[in-house]
């Protein structure tokens, strides 16, 4: 019976991954990144194949107790199949949009070029181009779109191409071509400078390998950390596979590296699972272990609140019911959302997303959140390497408009980020009583 429960728990974990296949952190970024969509599609197919295969094995090998199990009563297979069909259709639609956009852009620009005498060229093209910040992982998506819409557009002059190029690069990429003026002769020079620096398969591969090797070890047992670890590894290996790397033969090295990143309890659980086996495990086995453990930890985090003794102001003991978030805090490093109390990041909260930029700023200040990652610590203590997706500066994308307005309205001598310091001027909240 225990073996059946374990197998069904793995099935439910795969169901969750399939259900979340289209739940991207940044939908706009995904729609402009063909490699990311392909990687998500590969992961979806792998999870569905494993789910389908295990479902057939359960039906063929398990007869006693299966029909009465909630797995069958809740029609998990049928529901998972519906989510798989929806996710697969959604991801394929996004891939088709890339091709449709390319064809439509070429056709439209060609027609407009033929009728240039009737339509001013300055109106072309009316397509929002991607911004390239100078990071290797986003180079290929930028290259494909810019080359298709601008570089290979016969209706544009090199002067116009140079203008579009300089407006589409920022950060290190902008500094690379910053000394070149906007002229027809300089476009080829600027484009070749970018290509020679970033169209480097060795560096593109290294960027994905860095995502793997730069993962930080988990200090405590928490479901979110394990899920992030698994997602990062899966996405990086999928991108490396697209770049032609023989990822499937890296099981030994990958597994050896990732196991060292686990917290002590998870690592012990992995060794217990291996038991007396003398055969080196595969990455697939380790992946299934992480999925099952993450699922189990998430389920434990949903237990009912426990009554805990607390000291009243008079010094006598009284009983109070601990909040749901406090009950699950020991199992997860993911703090409770300050707006709705659910166990998710503030940026994922629907209430937070529905607010204006000014209201979001006020929420961050009120709840003493970091302006860079929205975590419950001062911005000056933030160790996150993530930056704003729109400008690359050290603040969260959700409050980018505030920084943009502040930069536009303040003089050089005025502290444009004054409001960001308001949360740091307040004293840190007291440590929770355990």
TrEMBL record:
Q: Locate the region Disordered.
A: 404-434
Query: Which Pfam family is an annotated match for this chain, by its short name?
Result: DUF1759
Alphabetized PANTHER family for the sequence = PHD-TYPE DOMAIN-CONTAINING PROTEIN, RIBONUCLEASE H
Q: What is this protein called?
A: Gag-pol polyprotein
Q: Which organism is it from?
A: Lasius platythorax
